[in-house]
Amino acid sequence: MDEGGGCGATAWIGGSMATVTYDKDRIALLVIDPYNDFISEGGKLWDRIKDVADANQCIPHMVQVLQAARQAGIRVFYALHHRYRPGDYESWKYIAPVQKASWRSQTFAYGTWGGEIRAEFAPQPGDVVAQEHWGSSGFANTDLDLQLKKHGIHKLIVIGLIAHTCVDATVRYAAELGYDVTMVKDATTSYSQDHMHAALDINIPNYASAILTADEVVSALSTLRDFEEVR
User: Fold this and answer.
1) Per residue in 30-42, is it b (16+ CB within 10 Å) or e — as a string?
2) In tens digits, what is the pLDDT along the chain, a chain of 231 residues?
3) Number of domains within the chain
4) Of 120, 201, 129, 193, which Cα lies nearest the Cα of 168?
């Protein structure tokens, strides 16, 4: 238990024992891009991530962490990719490759099933849905940082899609802004195990202070919930 009344779990981090503490009033769950086009059968990108997502049970772990966060009473924030609309990019002078790909495939198109959030992850009353991001970072050109600060959030637990682009970029930007980040390594996925390795073993460890499994995070949140119930 920390001085602020938070509770934590002890887990192996970076090869040594460390205690991760969560304070209900200061931590939030950040859910990145749980669109049907990513994580539902028939989605435009599902076939590209299916093998890796099945291997690490990404979707069940995302559901597990989301449910634990709601049960613990911590606030849930959503960082969502821009949903394609006709005319979005035609007049742009410079278009990044990731945006060209979105334009070409019309991924997450507005008003389509693919551009809807998968049912298990639908925002609930009290959740905060930030403005949609145009590139990869959930913070760039959105109100996510403002929303987090206005709610007094200092720490983030991150789940969602996909590891080597939006998740990686959002975690990096969070660290630049001063947030303490826990990355849930089996509640994300990518196009290949090489992509997962690059994101979770090489890039994100430079920015996230903890990289835990869904079970470890749920254990910490359960401790927090139990503490709140008896306080």
Assistant:
1) bbbbbbbbbbbee
2) 344 445 554 444 444 445 677 888 999 999 999 999 999 999 999 999 999 999 999 999 999 999 999 999 999 999 999 999 999 999 999 999 999 998 999 999 999 999 999 999 999 999 999 999 999 999 999 999 999 999 999 999 999 999 999 999 999 999 999 999 999 999 999 999 999 999 999 999 999 999 999 999 999 998 875 545 444
3) 1
4) 201
Sign, CA torsion 47/49/54/55: positive
The answer to the question of residue 5 being in a domain is no
Separation in Å, CA 84 to CA 10, 57, 74, 77? 42, 28, 31, 21
Cα atoms found within 13 Å of the Cα of residue 169, Cβ hemisphere only: 18
Q: What CATH number does the domain containing 55 carry?
A: 3.40.50.850
The rounded distance, in Å, linking the Cα atoms of 164 and 161 is: 9
Indicate whether 95 belongs to any domain.
yes
Structural domain that includes position 211: 24-230
Residue 16: inside a domain: no
Determine the residue type at 150: K
